[in-house]
Amino acid sequence: MASITLTSKRQVTFPRETCEAMGLKPGDIVDLESRQEAGARIWVLRPRTIPDRKWLACLGSRAQKVTDHSMEAVRRSIAAGRKGRP
Fold first, then answer.
1. Residue scoring higher pLDDT (85 or 59)
2. Torsion over CA of 63, 66, 71 and 72, rounded to 10 degrees?
3. pLDDT in tens, 12-25
4. Is residue 85 scored above 70 in pLDDT?
5. pLDDT band at 9 (very low <50, low <70, confident <90, very high)
6. If residue 81 lies in a helix (H) or strand (E), which one and from where to where?
7. β-sheet bridge partners, residue 37
8. Concatenated DSSP letters for 13-32?
9. What's the gap between Cα 63 and its chain centre?
10. What is residue 49's predicted lDDT score, i.e. its pLDDT?
11. Helices and strands, number each (H, E), in the chain
């Protein structure tokens, strides 16, 4: 059984074998869930899956190139958008 030690800053280092078995890499997020099973409290570690968002890149050609982020520019943009509404 692998074990981990909690540091004074509440940090832990997982054994290499555990990280490899879970498919974890530096920077990955692990969700921690508390459960009650057979009258005992157990903790479940689950690697967080990041949704595939490669499709977002195709929206770049449709985005407007805005360089003026002043409040006046924002107000003009809102007013222009409202003109199309009844």
1. 59
2. -110
3. 999 999 999 999 99
4. no
5. very high
6. helix 71-83
7. 40
8. ---HHHHHHHT--TT--EEE
9. 24
10. 84
11. 2, 2
The upper half-sphere exposure of residue 64, i.e. CA atoms within 13 Å in the direction of its Cβ, equals 5
State the DSSP H helix or E strand holding residue 41, giving kind and residue range, or none if neither: strand 40-47
Encoded amino acid at 25, one letter: K
How far lies 73's CA from each of 56, 63, 64, 80, in Å? 26, 16, 13, 10
Pair 44, 35: CB distance under 8 Å: yes
Strands 30-37 and 40-47 come out as: antiparallel
The set of residues, in sequence order, having a beta carbon less than 8 Å from that of 12 and lying 6+ positions away, is: 4, 5, 6
- Please check whether residue 12 is in contact with residue 6, taking contact to mean a CB–CB distance below 8 angstroms: yes
- Token pair 């990041």: residue: 50
- Token pair, residue 76, equals 């003009």
Per the prediction, the chain carries an average pLDDT of: 86
